[in-house]
Amino acid sequence: MAAKELKQFTLEEVAEHNKPDDLWVVIDAKVYNLSRFKDLHPGGISVLMDGEIAGQDATEAFYGLHRHEVLERPQYQRLQIGTIQGEQPVIYSRIVGELSDVPYAEPTWLSQGYHSPYYTDNHRKFQQAMRRFADEFIYEDAQAREEDGKRPSQSVIDQMAAVNLHAMRMGPGKHLQGLSLMNGLVKPEEFNYFHELIITQEIARCGARGYGDGLMGGKVIGLPPVLNFGSEALKARVVPEVFAGKKFICLAISEAQAGSDVMGLQTTAVKSEDGKEWIVNGTKKWITNATFADYFTVGCKTEDGLTVILIERGPGVETRQIKTSYSTTAGTAYITFDNVRVPVENTLGEEGGGIFVILSNFNHERWVMCCSSARSQRSIVEECLKWATQRKAFGKPLISQAVIRSKLAAMIARTESVQSWLENITYQMCHMTYKQQSQKLAGQIAFLKSYSTRCAQETAKDAVQIFGGRGITRTGMGRFIEHYHRTVTFDALLGGAEDVLSDLGVRQAMRAMPKNARL
Ligand code: HEM
Questions:
Q1: What is the pTM of this model?
Q2: Is the CB of 475 under 6 A from ligand 1?
Q3: Domain Cytochrome b5 heme-binding: where (predicted)?
Q4: Cα–Cα distance between 34 and 79 in angstroms, integer?
Q5: Are the CB atoms for 326 and 148 separated by under 8 Å?
Q6: pLDDT by residue (tens digit) across 6-49?
Q7: For the segment 425-441, what is each residue's pLDDT rounded down to a tens digit?
Q8: C-alpha radius of gyration, the chain, whole number
Q9: Pocket perturbation via mutation, ligand 1, pick of 34, 66, 391, 480 by most ligand atoms within 8 A of CB
Q10: How far is the CA of 253 from the centre of ligand 1 (A)?
C-alpha cells in the first residue's frame, strides 16, 4: 500500500482547527488531526481543548505526559496528516542498533571521546552486532511477553541459536570450538569474558527483568554443571540441543525448606536395587525456567551427602507456575519429583560431591548478574536524565531543582563505579585459570554483587522519587521505572543474598590474611 501523502501546513492554518469537531495539534513539526481520536484519548477531551493545545504547537505539553513511543504506535501514526512548512521533526527516542548520545547512557568505552584499556576492535564490532541483534529481535518480544507473561517466543530463541548466542552465554571455553559465533564475527578462541559481558548488557538494555531470565536464564546457571561435570555421552546428547534452542534446562537447588542453606536440602535420591537408577523424591521452589524446562539440574540428598543429578522431564516430574513480582515470562515454578527414576549416568560430578558442583557455579552466575545489574542501572539513569529535562514543574524543568540533580549525581556515581569495578574483575577473569578465579575472585565477585544490588536499590528508590506517581504506574511515562523498582530485589536475592555475600567476601579476605601482620 502506498504511504499516505503528507501535506504541508503553516502554523496559522493549523490554528484554525481548534474546535471539538475540527481539532488539530502540532507535535514536533508533525500535524495531527485529533477530531475523531479525542473521544478515545486516554487523557480525556478537556486537556486537548485547552487554549494552549487545540490548534497549537503542543510539543512540550505532549512530551511532559507521554513517551515518544506513543506516536510510533501504528494506530496513532495514522492520525498524522502533515508537517509544518519548512520544519523537520527532530525528536527521537531509541534508534535501532545505535548508541545513545545521552550522557552516561552508555559506559565510557562506548561514549565518544573516551578510552578503555579493556576492549579490542573485535569487542567493538561485536557490541555493534549485538546491539542491532537485541534491538531488532529481542526488544519488542521482551516488551510484549513481559506484558502477557508468556515465555519468550521460540522465534527469538531460534534467532539466537542461529548465531550461537546460547553457546556464547556460557562464557569462553571448549564448548565454543567449531561454532560460528555471530556469523563468524569472533573466533571461538578469541571469545572472552568481555564478549559475554557485552551480550548480557545488551540483553539487559531491553529493560524487561522477567523476560531477561525467561530468555534461557535457567540455562546460564543450569548447564555449566553438565558442561563441567557431565559424562561425555551425556554432554553429547544434551548440550547441542540446548545450544540449538530446541531443549530447555534449569537449575533446581532451592526448596521451600532450604534456600541458601544448601546442606539443608530435603529432596532425596536413593539408588535402585540394581544400582542402575536414582529414585528421586522431593520438591524445589522458585526455579527459573522450570515451567518449560526439559532438563533439571537438581541438588539431592544422597547416602554420601549432596549429589547433583540431571533429571529429564518425564513420569513423576510436575511443575507448577509461581507468580512472583516479575512476570511469568521467566517461567518460575514449584517442582515436585515423585519416584522419578533417573539413570545413574546422569550424575554430575562425584556422588556426595554436589556441594563442589554447586559452589563452582556461583562465581560465574554472580558475575553475570553484576553485568546485568550495571547495565540496568545505567538505563534508569538515562530514563531519569530524559525525564528531568523534558518534564516541567513549577514553571521550569525538573533538572533545575537542586534536589533532582543531587539524586542524579548519586545515581550516576553508583552506575559508573559498578561498571568500572565490573570491568576490572572481568579483566582478571580473562587472565586467570578457572582455579585461580575460584581462589582469588570469589570474594571480589561476592562484594561486587552485593555492592551492585545495593546501588541498584538506591537508584530504584531515587528514580521513583524523580518520576513521582509515574514511577509506580505500570503504563506510560514511568513504566520502566515502575518495572525496575518492582523487580530490582531479584538481583539482591538470586545467587546469594546481599549480607551473605558481603560476609563471604570478608571471610575470603581473612583466609588470605598474613598470620604475622600487625599494626
Ligand atoms: C497525537 C496525539 C496524542 C496521542 C496519540 C495521545 C495518546 C495518549 C495515550 C496513549 C495516553 C495514555 C498514557 C500513555 O500511554 O502514555 C495519553 C494520556 C494523556 N494524554 Fe495524550 N495523546 C495525544 C496528545 C495529547 C496532548 C496534546 C495532550 C495535551 C495536554 C495530551 C494529554 C494527555 C494527558 C493529560 C494524559 C494522561 C497522562 C497520565 O495519565 O499521566 N495528550 N495520551
A1: 0.95
A2: yes
A3: 6-85
A4: 7
A5: no
A6: 899 999 999 999 999 999 999 999 999 999 999 999 999 999 99
A7: 999 999 999 889 988 99
A8: 26
A9: 66
A10: 47
Share of the chain above pLDDT 70, in %: 99
Span from the CA of 71 to the centroid of ligand 1 (angstroms): 10
By CB atoms closer than 10 A (0-12, 13-18, 19+), residue 392 is: middle
Report the alpha-carbon distance of residue 274 to residue 268 in Å, rounded: 18
Distance 481 CA to ligand 1 centre (A): 19
State how far the alpha carbon of 228 is from the alpha carbons of 237, 349, 350, 363, 452, in Å.
Answer: 14, 8, 12, 14, 28
- The span from the CA of 112 to the CA of 175, in Å, is 35
Q: Is the ipTM of this complex over 0.95?
A: yes
Beta carbon of 86 within 6 Å of any ligand 1 atom: no
φ/ψ of 294, rounded to 5, equals -95, -25
Mutate to test the pocket of ligand 1, among 30, 31, 41 (most ligand atoms within 8 A of CB): 41
In sequence order, what are the residues at sequence separation of 6 or more whose Cβ sits closer than 8 angstroms to the Cβ of residue 80? 6, 30, 31, 32
Task: List the Cα angle 199/370/436 in 5-degree steps.
Answer: 95
Minimum CA distance residue for ligand 1 atom 18: 43
Angle between helix 354-390 and helix 402-430 axes, rounded to 10 deg: 150
The DSSP bridge pattern shows strands 7-9 and 80-84 to be: parallel
From CA 493, how far away is CA 356, in angstroms rounded?
21
The response to whether residue 113 sits with its C-beta less than 6 Å from ligand 1 reads no
- C-beta of 51 in contact with ligand 1 (< 6 A): no
Rounded to the nearest whole angstrom, what is the distance from the C-alpha of residue 66 to the centroid of ligand 1?
6
| Ligand 1 close to Cβ of residue 79 (< 6 A) | yes
Residue with grid cell 505526559, as numbered in its chain: 65
Cell numbers 585459570 correspond to 433
Can you tell me the distance from the alpha carbon of 11 to that of 391, in angstroms, rounded to the nearest whole number? 24
- Alpha carbon of 212 to ligand 1 centroid (Å): 29
Domains of the chain: 7-84 (3.10.120.10), 108-215 (1.10.540), 249-352 (2.40.110.10), 360-511 (1.20.140.10)
